[in-house]
Design a protein that fits this description.
It is a single chain. With about 180 residues, the protein is α/β, with parallel strands linked by helices. It has 2 domains: about 60 residues, 2-Layer Sandwich (Double Stranded RNA Binding Domain); about 80 residues, Orthogonal Bundle (Arc Repressor Mutant, subunit A). The protein has 6 helices and 6 strands; from the N terminus they run E-E-E-H-E-H-H-E-H-H-E-H. Strands 3-2-1-4 form a 4-stranded mixed beta sheet. It has a two-stranded parallel sheet with strand order 5-6. Helix 3 crosses helix 4 and helix 4 crosses helix 5. The longest helix is centred in the middle third of the chain and has 14 residues. The chain starts with a strand and ends in a 12-residue tail after the last helix.
Length: about 180
C-alpha cells in the first residue's frame, strides 16, 4: 500500500477533501456540513493519513474541481485516478460516467446497456453509490428512468445532486415531494 495524503479545500458548495497516493487521486470527499466532519470522514475511510499541501498535479485537480463547481464546464478527464482495489465492474461504470460532459446526463439504464444490459441498472446504481471520487467521477450526472434525480449518497442527498446539476445547467425532471 502506498502512502496516502490528503488536503481540505474550499469550493462553492463547501469545504471538500481530496486523498492521493503515488499513482493518482484515491478519493474525493464532498462537504459534510463542516470541515471537522469532512476531515473525520476522510480519516474513517483512509485511516491515519497526513494532511499536507498538495503537489502540483493534485493542486491542478483541486483547481479543476473548484472551477466545475463554480459553473465552468471543466470535464475533469485529465485527472488521474488510482482506483486500485475497486471492482472491475465499478471501474467500468466510472469510466462511462466520466465520459458524460458537464451539463449533460445519462440514466442508470443507459450505463447498464453499455455494460451488457438494462438488467444491470441496480448494479450501476450500487457502484455509483460507492464512488470514491464524486465530482471527478460525476455520479451526480447519472439519473433514474425518466430523467428523475434518483438517489445520491453524499451529504445532503438529492438536494446536493440537484444543486450540482443546476450549477452545470443540466435539466432534470424534479417534482419535490414529502420524501425529498
Amino acid at each position: 500500500m502506498t502512502e496516502q495524503q490528503f488536503a481540505i479545500f474550499d469550493t462553492p458548495i463547501g469545504r471538500c477533501g481530496i486523498v492521493w497516493g503515488e499513482r493518482g487521486i484515491v478519493s474525493v470527499q464532498l462537504p459534510m456540513g463542516d470541515e471537522k466532519k469532512t476531515r473525520s470522514r476522510l480519516q474513517q475511510r483512509h485511516g491515519d493519513i497526513d494532511e499536507t499541501p498538495p503537489p502540483a498535479k493534485v493542486q491542478a485537480a483541486i483547481e479543476g474541481i473548484v472551477e466545475l463547481l463554480a459553473g465552468k464546464p471543466n470535464d475533469l478527464t485529465e485527472i488521474v485516478l488510482d482506483l486500485d482495489g475497486v471492482p472491475a465492474f465499478n471501474r467500468g461504470v466510472y469510466d462511462i460516467a466520466r465520459s458524460i460532459p458537464p451539463g449533460q446526463t445519462m440514466t442508470y439504464g443507459d450505463i447498464a446497456k453499455k455494460l451488457g444490459g438494462v438488467e444491470l441498472s441496480r448494479d450501476v446504481g450500487q457502484a455509483l453509490g460507492r464512488n470514491p471520487c464524486p465530482i471527478v467521477v460525476p455520479c451526480h450526472r447519472v439519473l433514474a428512468a425518466g430523467n428523475k434525480p434518483g438517489g445520491f449518497s453524499a451529504n445532503g442527498g438529492v438536494v446536493t445532486k440537484l444543486k450540482m446539476l443546476a450549477i452545470e445547467g443540466a435539466v432534470v425532471n424534479h417534482t419535490p415531494n414529502l420524501f425529498d
